[in-house]
Amino acid sequence: MDTHELIEQIVATPNESRTLEFKRLGSRNEGLDRTLQSIVAMANTDGGSIVLGIDDPQKTTAKGLDRIHGIEENPELYDELGLNVRKISPPIASIWPPELIHVPGKNMRIGLLNVPKVTDSFRSIENHVYVRQERGNKRLSPQEIVHFAYVKGFERADTELVPVDLHLLKTAYYESWRRKRGIEGDSIGMVFEKTGLAKRNEKGDVVPTRAAVLLFAEYPNDLMDTKCTTRIFQYEGNLEMIKETLNLIGNPTTIDGPITKQIKDSHEYVLTLLRSGLRVPSGFVTQYQIPERAIREAITNAIIHRDYHTKRDIEIKIFEDRVEIESPGLLPFNITPSNIGLVRADGYRNDLMVKHLREFPDPPNLDQNEGIRAMRETMTEANLYPPIFLTYPYLQDSLKVILFNEKAPTEWDKVSHYLNEYKYITSKEARGILGIVSEVKMSKLFNKWLKKNLLIKIVPRKGAKRNTSYRLPATEERSLFTPDKGK
C-alpha cells in the first residue's frame, strides 16, 4: 500500500471504534489529556491505533482530505504529548514516536500511533486506570480494577491458596494423575509442594492451591468460596423470555466435579440433548446440525480457560437456532477478538492448572491452540455460520461463544468475503455484490445478520443515514493502516 492509498483508507474509515481514534491537535484537553487517556485505555483493552492530526468524522462536517489538519496545526502540543507519554506507568515500550506520514498535496503530516495490548498489568496515567469502550474511554474505580485484573488474567486465581484439607484431594483423580506421572511414595502434601500445587502458609502448614482443588476434589464447588460448575439450560424457541414463567424446557442441569469429569460430563449431556433434538409446540423436532467437535471444543475451552475468581458459573444455553456457551473472564494476554484462534496465546490464565491437566491419562485437550481452529473449520465444512465470539465491551467480564444451527446462505459468503478484504460495506455495495435491487430486501438481510451479532452497524452523522455502513464484530482498523515500507 503506497502513501496515497493509505491516506485514502484512513479518511474513508467511517467512525471511531474500540480500536481506532482520530485526534486533532487543536486544544490541550482534546489533543493532550484525552489522547493520553486513550493510549492507556487501548493498551489496557485490546490495543489499537490513534491517528494524530485528523478530525473525528462524527464531529465534523468536513470530508476527505479536508478533515486533515496535520500535527503542524499545533507542533508544541505534539511535542508535549511525546513528553507526557513517558508518564504512563508502567511505561509502554517503543510506543513513541508515532509513524509520520506526509499527506499528498498538502504541506503537512499525520501521526499514526500504534498502541499494543499490554499483557502483564494495567497501565495508568496520573494514577488513573482507563479501559476502552466501543467508542470512548471508561475510568475504572478501585473495585473495578481488582475485578478486571482477574478477568483479564493479570491476577491468577488458580495459584491462590484455599483452605481445603488435603485428604479431601486424595481421590481417584489424584491417584490416576500420580500414576501417570510415575510419582511414588511421597505424601500428598509433599507431592503437591514439589509440583507447585501447594505452598506453606505463615504457620508452616501445607495449603493447596485452587488449581489442586479444581483438578482433584470430587466437589470443588462446595469446598471453595467461588463458583466453578457448568449450568445447562434448554429453551423453547430462539429467545430467552421472562414472563410469568420462563420458556425453559425442564429444570437447568448443574455439572459439578473435578475439571476432567466436568468436561466429560458436560460434553455427554449437551451432545445427548442435541442428538435427541428439541421438540417444539407444533410437534416437530428441531434437528441440530452443529458439529460435535465444535461443541466439544467450545465447552472444553470455557471450562479450562475461564476466570475462577469471578463468582459465576459457566452457562450453556440451547435454543432452537443456536447454542451459547458463556464463561467468566475476558480474552487474556495477547489474544483479541480479531486474532483469537489465529495466533497462539503468550500464556494461560490458569497456567498452573493447564500444566497439570495435560498430565492426566486422557487429557481433554492437546494444549496446541487447536480448539478455535477446529471450531471454525468444522462449522465451515458443515456450511454453517462461523462461530461468533462476543466479549468486552458487549459483555463486561465474560466471553460468549455462539454456534448457529443454521445453514449460511450464499449471500453471507459473498458479504463476509467482501468485509474480510475491505472491512466496511454499505447497502449499495452489498446490493451490487448480491444482485439485489430492492433496498427493503437488503435491509432485511442486514437486520437478520445484526440480530445474530454477525455484523455491527455504523450510523454516520445526523443527516447522512444513506451512508450507513457495516463491519464484522472483530474488525481491527490497525490492519488497514500498515504502510508499505518499500514505497
Summarize the structure in words.
Residues 483-487 have low confidence and may be disordered. By secondary structure, the protein is an alpha+beta fold. It contains 15 helices and 19 strands. The radius of gyration is 25 Å and the shape is globular. It starts with a helix and ends in a 16-residue tail after the last strand. Helix 10 (292-305) runs antiparallel to helix 12 and helix 14 crosses helix 15.
Computed CA radius of gyration, to the nearest angstrom: 25 Å
Total count of strands: 19
Strand content: 15-25%
Q: Any idea what the CATH architecture of the largest domain is?
A: 2-Layer Sandwich
The dominant shape is globular
Instruction: Bin the helical content.
Output: 25-40%
Poorly predicted runs: 483-487
Number of helices: 15
**Physical arrangement of strands within the biggest beta sheet:** 10-9-13-14-16-15
The CATH class of the largest domain turns out to be Alpha Beta
Describe the structure concisely for a colleague:
The protein contains 15 helices and 19 strands. By secondary structure, it is α+β, with helices and mostly antiparallel strands. The protein folds into four domains: 3-140, Schlafen, AAA domain (Methyltransferase, Cobalt-precorrin-4 Transmethylase, Domain 2, 2-Layer Sandwich); 157-217, no CATH class; 230-404, 2-Layer Sandwich (Heat Shock Protein 90), CATH 3.30.565.60; 410-478, Orthogonal Bundle (Arc Repressor Mutant, subunit A).
